[in-house]
Predict the 3D structure of the following.
Amino acid sequence: MLACAGLKRLGMEARITRALPPEEMLPAIAQGVIGIECRQDDAAVRALLEPLNHPDTVCRTLTERAMNTTLAGGCQAPVAGYAELHNDSLELRGLVGWPDGTEIIRGDITGTTATAEGLGRRLAEQLLTGGARPILDALLADH
């Protein structure tokens, strides 16, 4: 793994006692994705950046962000999501919970990469109707 190689170079691998798989702990939306911005009309810079674009990561990120946007999640909301690709199949797992962990609403959905953003929105709706709405309303009202 790239992350593990980076930790080894930094001499930090001894501090890692256990990797947490997404089945045990979902990460924040688009966790670990690096975004690079440039001017839309700067063709030269866009051409330089194009090799850095990773289509699978874009697909996964669009799915996770569509879920988060539909939930109106932000830094104050305990929302997590993780999309995985299996060939052309896309699986998204998500959750919303109280910060103290007393209630956690979980869901998952599977579809094709062609429906990435729609999957994110659909899972968000499932979470909202499954009990996430009161949690988000209460937490977002405080801010």
